[in-house]
Amino acid sequence: MxxxxxxxxxxxxxxxxxxxxxxxxxxxxxxxxAPSAPAAPTPQRSQPAAPPARVATTTPAPAPVSQPPRxxxxxxxxxxxxxxxxxxxxxxxxxxxxxxPDAIVALKGDSTxxxxxxxxxxxxxxxxxxxxxxxxxxEYNIALGExxxxxxxxxxxxxxxxxxxxxxxxxxxxxxxxQEHDEACWQKNRRIHIVAQSQK
Length: 200
What we know:
The protein is of the alpha+beta class. It is built from 6 helices and 4 strands.
């Protein structure tokens, strides 16, 4: 009986130990799952910004700038003709083309006013005619008449008349102002004469 009792106690004790052991044994808690790192965003290619739509613009044409007249009016041409009539022919010594003092005075007369008018009308031109007396060959006098016209042009350019508005022509002995065959007449033929060039 004692053995039975001891066996029962042992059995109870063993069961108790098992129960107690089981009670104390903790189930290993599983660690919580590690938070998964957020997935790296897939780099998105930025679309190029669409260029702004072009609006067709029309620039208004600039207003035409009124150009000053390049040719004088009838009234101004009449004034030029008056000045030319007052400018005396410039005369030369025999076989010479240099301007004498009296020739310079003749050219200087109204050339300042003439200059002031002509510079405003670049299309208006004058012609300086070179003349000679009847002595010498035609070829020689043609060359001498040109040199006389050029001397007068050089002087007028020096005064301020634009060179491009002064043309020269030589007539040699072909257009005499006097038909006599003496020195007094020949002197009248050795000259330059200024005229308005035929235009418009």
